[in-house]
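This part of the workshop introduces the protein records we will be handling. Getting from the letters to the tokens is the skill we practise here. An example says more than a description, so a record of this kind follows:
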Amino acid sequence: MALDLNLPKKNGLFITGTDTGVGKTLVTGAIASILCEQGVKVGVFKPIASGCRHDRAGLVSVDAEFLALCAQTDYPLSILAPVCYKTPAAPVTCAEVEGRPVNYEAIGSAYRYLCQNCDVVLVEGIGGAMVPIDPRHTILDLAVEFDLPAVVVARPRLGTINHSLLTIEAIRHAGLPVAGVVICGYDPASEDAAERTAGDVICNFAQTNLLAIVPRDEASCVEEGRLGSGVVEALRKVNWKQITCG
């Protein structure tokens, strides 16, 4: 069932992953940083965030803080992450535990603001594409409202082929284009045949682009607001301006 948020059409990307903890925030932040270097005014958007911390301003998303730093933006976090939960769980569970359903009006209002004030908007999902956000809708249903090309961030580990292909199939079935796949956290020192070939197998089978293989980078840490050069340089090889702006 459609959410019908009536959102504006905008240049940008929807960054999703095969799972939680695959590096979506790191990849989104690096893309934002690269575009900023090229003179693009980037809006970063985490419509729903869980596992947030309390401070004097209320609930704060660490992911949104990191994205704001990478995008060099001073927009309030209430715009960048309009729906926040303390519980580290799927939104449908957070809403039940905390007694607050997902506020779609807040998501739509914040997204419209970014669309009006930025050249491109990078939207980062929560968990994987099929994570439920209420009893009838998933993250993918929300992505359809943004109507942006999707970038799938995947692990380099054994098992990632199945997860990645299922994610790509679900995105396409929903009617969204897939811009390509980013393999994140690759460590050549510990690679095996599965890790070495996973990206090519995924993209050859799914007929999509292997955009980048991002190395494991100890200099990067979302929680500490650090974006390492290894991540940025791996993603800098991609023409993100062309992908986001057409």
Notes: Residues 13 and 122 are 5 Å apart (CA to CA).
